[in-house]
Amino acid sequence: MRKLKNLFLSACYLIGLLLTPHANAALQIGDTAPSFSLQDQHQKMVSLEDQLGKWVVLYFYPKNDTPGCTTEACSFRDNINHLIAQQAVILGVSVDSVASHKDFSEKFKLPFSLLADENGKVAAQYDAILNLGVVKFARRHSFIIDPTGKIARIYRNVDPQKHVADILKDLKQLQAAQ
C-alpha cells in the first residue's frame, strides 16, 4: 500500500511539473512586483501596497510545520532583529489556511506575517506554485522587493538553512548601492 501511495504521489508530482503554467517565469529583477492582498494568521489583510517605502522579503514555502519550512521560518525569527535593522519586512506565503498559519506562528513564536494564499493565485503570479493536480504547494522561492515595489532579488529553490544569511547579505549590498 505504501509503494502504491508513493507511486501515486510521484505521478502527481510529475504531472504537476508538466501542467504547471510558467507564464510568469519571466519575472525579473527590476520588474514591478505583482500586487496582492492576503489574510495573515491574525485574520488581518496584508497588501504589498501597504509595504511601499519598506524593503520586503517575500518568501514562499510549501507547508507549515514541516522540517524545511520550520527551519526557514525559525531562521527568519532568529534573525528578525538583523532584518529589522535592515528596514526589512518579512512576509511568508503558503497555500495553508489562516488557522494553520496561526497554529504554526504560535507554536514557533514567529514575529512576522504568514499569509494564506489558499487558492495559490499569488504564488502563481510569482511563478512559485507547484500544482500536483490534486494538491498545490508553494515552491520555496523568495523575493526582495525594494521600497518602490520593484523586484530587487529573486531566489529560486532556496536552501532553508542558508537562505536568511543570503537575504541579509543581499539587503546590505542593495541598500549600500542606493
Automatic annotation (TrEMBL):
User: Which residues does UniProt mark as catalytic?
Assistant: C69
Matching Gene3D superfamilies, A to Z?
Glutaredoxin (3.40.30.10)
Q: What is its EC number?
A: 1.11.1.24
InterPro entries registered for this protein in UniProt: AhpC/TSA, Peroxiredoxin_AhpC-typ, Peroxiredoxin_BCP/PrxQ, Thioredoxin-like_sf, Thioredoxin_domain
Q: What UniProt keywords are attached to this protein's entry?
A: Antioxidant, Disulfide bond, Oxidoreductase, Peroxidase, Redox-active center, Signal
Signal peptide residue numbers: 1-25
Residue ranges of domain Thioredoxin in the record: 27-176
Q: What class of enzyme is it?
A: oxidoreductase
Q: Does the keyword Acyltransferase apply?
A: no
GO cellular component term of the entry, any: cytoplasm
One Gene Ontology term of the biological-process aspect is: cellular response to oxidative stress
Xref: SUPFAM superfamilies: Thioredoxin-like
Instruction: Give the GO molecular function terms.
Output: thioredoxin peroxidase activity
Q: Catalysed reaction per UniProt?
A: a hydroperoxide + [thioredoxin]-dithiol = an alcohol + [thioredoxin]-disulfide + H2O
Q: Name one Pfam family in it.
A: AhpC-TSA
Reply yes or no: does the keyword Nucleotidyltransferase apply: no
Subunit structure of this entry? Monomer.
Query: What family does this chain come from, according to its entry?
Result: Belongs to the peroxiredoxin family. BCP/PrxQ subfamily.
Q: Which PANTHER family match?
A: AHPC_TSA FAMILY PROTEIN, THIOREDOXIN-DEPENDENT PEROXIDE REDUCTASE
Q: What does this protein do?
A: Thiol-specific peroxidase that catalyzes the reduction of hydrogen peroxide and organic hydroperoxides to water and alcohols, respectively. Plays a role in cell protection against oxidative stress by detoxifying peroxides and as sensor of hydrogen peroxide-mediated signaling events.
The name under which this protein is listed is thioredoxin-dependent peroxiredoxin
Q: What organism is recorded for this protein? A: Thiosulfatimonas sediminis
